[in-house]
User: Fold Iron-containing alcohol dehydrogenase from Microvirga aerilata.
Amino acid sequence: MSLISYLTTIRFDFGALAGLKDDLRELGIKAPLIVADAGIARVGLVDRLKELLPGGQNVPVFTDTPPNPTEAAVLAALELYRSNGCDGLIAIGGGSPIDLAKGVALLSSHEGPLEQYAAILGGIPKINSAVAPLIAIPTTAGTGSEVGRAALITLKDGRKLGFISPHLIPKRAVCDPELTMGLPPMLTAATGMDAITHCIETFLSPRFNPPAEAIALDGLVRALNNIERAVAQGSDREARREMLMAALEGGLTFQKGLGAVHALSHPLGGLKQVSLHHGTLNAVLLPYVLEFNGSHSEAKYETIRQRLGLEVGASLADYVRGLNARLDMPSTLAEMGVPQDCFAAIAKSAVEDHSSATNPRPASEADYRTILEAAYEGASPRPNG
Assistant:
């Protein structure tokens, strides 16, 4: 069992869930609220979690987490939290329950409305250490939200905004690869591509943070060496363990900031007319953004090629396209059902998104529109990847 202290405390290994009582005691949580979603409850993980808690079956549970967390769901969970006199949270599932729980942890100790704490609206300094303690238990290997400082929440007016603060990093991350063993192939692929995108974008970010870059590269190699095994053989314990570590490492490098892939996938994920999976969006967008950024990231692209054993000058965009094809991921936004008439609004939101500032090549609304059109049609926006 490895006990890692980097930004937060992480329990990592098969059987890590067994230490949950110790985490509760160390954090002083006596009345937790469990935040999950309907799928997690349906497969019995909520009941399994309750068996480990002092309150057993009496522990309150919120399972109405939507695929993309909403302000309305945060407020509903907050009401349950307050009505049961809770003093902390346990989030189990993918990034959606964890992000929703971060919203509850924030509003349980900070006066509303939620909007005022959004990063792009100047909310970062408004978030203080009074945030309720949160234990995050990932059941997918992708989002890294269990160690991330951000929550992505769609407000009532449809804007999908980021809420960012070191105080939002869960106080404990319980990473038990066993919990990912039942993840179906398509979700394994999509969440795995999310982790890969995190590692690539944080490595390419222009912010100076060599330790984070080293972690990003390590996570990228782990993920690329194991994602196809994890998809093809979901019971492969080593592959599942390596993918969960890669996702964790991708989350640990969020300190560097992300880039244009996430600047686009965040507002796309907030569309009401179609439900889009975040990891799948990232997989589709990544090759086109790599082509766009190539002229501004030549040295780092070569570092990635060296770590992956690719030829000098090989196209990273084509490498990702080949991986997507082998994983049976969609290759265009058109295949995902994204409507073209939203591109102008998405491009505008992308410029305003907090991830845009750390893209290695500055991107305008026109640039984002070009990337969207290319990703819709399967064309190349910039032959330089």
Notes: The longest strand covers residues 88-93. The mean pLDDT is 94. The radius of gyration is 20 Å.
